[in-house]
Specification:
Blueprint: E1 4-5, E2 7-11, H1 30-39, H2 61-78, E3 86-89, E4 91-97, E5 100-110, H3 111-115, E6 119-120, H4 127-140, E7 142-143, E8 147-151, H5 155-167, E9 172-175, E10 181-186, H6 192-199, E11 204-208, H7 210-223, E12 232-239, E13 245-253, H8 257-267, E14 270-272, H9 276-280, E15 286-292, E16 298-304, H10 313-316, H11 319-332, E17 343-348, H12 352-357, E18 364-368, H13 374-382, E19 393-394, E20 403-406
Parallel strand pairs: 6-11, 8-12
Antiparallel strand pairs: 1-5, 2-3, 2-20, 4-5, 4-10, 5-12, 7-20, 8-11, 9-10, 13-17, 13-18, 13-19, 14-16, 15-16, 15-18
Helix pairs in contact: 2-4, 4-7
Length: 414
């Protein structure tokens, strides 16, 4: 039997489609999540809230967030936000934004496939975040934030997806305020065997959801299968050709930027960039850092770091690896993934218009990252190599609250 399985889901009902589906959790800061929940109290962000999203601080914050998340889910179910359970079956989930379109297969994937390497990772994780999400699975008892996986080959699956999205209208279609259109289709029952066969021998590349997948693995090891009798991860499988990867820039706060700039200049050739176009068109070996300018603006420094990293060439060429290896550790004694409060991540474009709008405070420096090519990601995954956290930012991101998979049978009577 393969790692991919049909899924039972409840879908948000039409009356609630404008209120419950939420923005992606990790694309918002804690402050932005709090503002969103204050303005949208029925948003599914209330279920997925993190310890830093609530009013409580200290050792009880995580437990309080989990209790509040389950209470919110129970309220949503009691109010009939989600319809009757459908399936088991496969569904098609399409996202459209800014002229980009990608459509994938909604399913479940065995947690064991993550453990045995069938699901291939490419990023390290933040351990505390994964631990919180493992507790979330058991205490909240539901999955609504699917991990995103890429596959290559399996043309029959891509053809079934294309056929379903052209044959009939979606049964759910939502246009969000941020310009994202989300659409859902049901696949015919006759297509189930063909999908299972087509994907049985294919590796799956984890695109988004490293913490959720690691959390599922930790939960299985600690607690055994879910109460419903299996231990699977809610997933969406996209053909890799349709995916679009942006960058995750690195913002350092609470540092002496004058000392940082001097230290960089002592260790590497550096030059000033004349403007945004020069930043974007920098040499392959150069990293770009935004520093506070003397006149209140932003100055850009280009730091030339040769490709001499001992890692495989595929990794040596990407900005997050070179930044972590040559600058963050040696210059600031900073290790990504260790919850260092000086480091934050800012997703976004890396074109001229985006660079022109970037700004930093007096105690900040922002390192501009270039997107990691999909072929590089898969090459690293196949070789068992991992990148620093937040090395990729796939956009558009799958959302929560559009559908839900209940893994605690006690919730079905809510």
């Amino acid at each position: 039997m393969g790692a991919v399985h049909p899924v039972r889901l409840r879908f948000v009902t039409p009356a609630w489609q404008g209120e419950v589906p939420s923005p992606p959790h990790d694309a918002l800061s804690p402050e932005a999540r709090r503002r969103h929940l204050a303005a949208n109290p029925r948003s599914y962000l209330g279920v997925t809230r993190a310890p830093e999203d609530g009013p409580m601080a200290g050792p009880d914050a995580a437990a309080e967030a989990l209790r509040a998340g389950r209470a919110t889910l129970i309220e949503l179910l009691a109010d009939g936000v989600f319809g009757a359970e459908e399936g088991p079956g496969y569904f098609i989930y399409r996202l459209e934004n800014g002229g980009h379109r990608q459509a994938g297969l909604v399913c479940t994937v065995d947690t064991a496939a993550y453990d045995d390497g069938t699901v291939r990772i490419h990023e390290r994780i933040n351990r505390s975040r994964a631990a919180h999400l493992a507790s979330h699975l058991r205490i909240v008892g539901a999955q609504s934030s699917p991990i995103a996986l890429a596959y290559r080959g399996a043309e029959v699956v891509t053809e079934l997806i294309a056929d379903a999205t052209t044959r009939e209208d979606p049964f759910v279609e939502i246009d969000d305020d941020d310009g994202l259109r989300q659409s859902l289709w049901r696949l015919e029952a006759d297509d189930v065997p063909a999908i299972a066969t087509a994907l049985s021998d294919h590796p799956l590349y984890l695109i988004d959801g490293h913490h959720r997948a690691a959390a599922a693995s930790a939960d299985l090891a600690a607690n055994g299968p879910h109460p419903i009798g299996d231990h699977r991860i809610l997933s969406v499988l996209f053909p890799y050709e349709e995916l679009r990867n942006l960058a995750f820039h690195r913002l350092l706060t609470g540092i002496d930027t004058t000392t940082l700039a001097a230290g960089l200049a002592e260790r590497f050739p550096t030059r000033s960039a004349a403007g945004p176009a020069a930043v974007v068109d920098r040499a392959d070996t150069e990293l770009a850092v935004a520093l506070p300018g003397s006149g209140g603006g932003t100055d850009w420094l280009l730091v030339d770091i040769p490709f001499d990293d001992p890692a495989p060439r595929a990794l040596a060429n990407i900005d997050p690896i070179r930044l972590a290896t040559h600058l963050l550790g040696p210059t600031l004694d900073l290790v990504e993934g260790d919850d260092d409060p000086r480091l934050e991540y800012r997703p976004g474009e890396a074109d001229v218009d985006a660079v022109r709008d970037l700004a930093v405070r007096a105690d900040q420096a922002l390192f501009l990252m270039r997107p990691v090519p999909l072929t590089t990601l898969m090459e690293c995954s196949d070789a068992g190599q991992v990148m620093p956290p937040k090395s990729t930012y796939f956009q558009p991101k799958v959302r929560s609250g559009l559908f839900v998979r209940l893994i605690d049978p006690a919730l079905t009577g809510a």
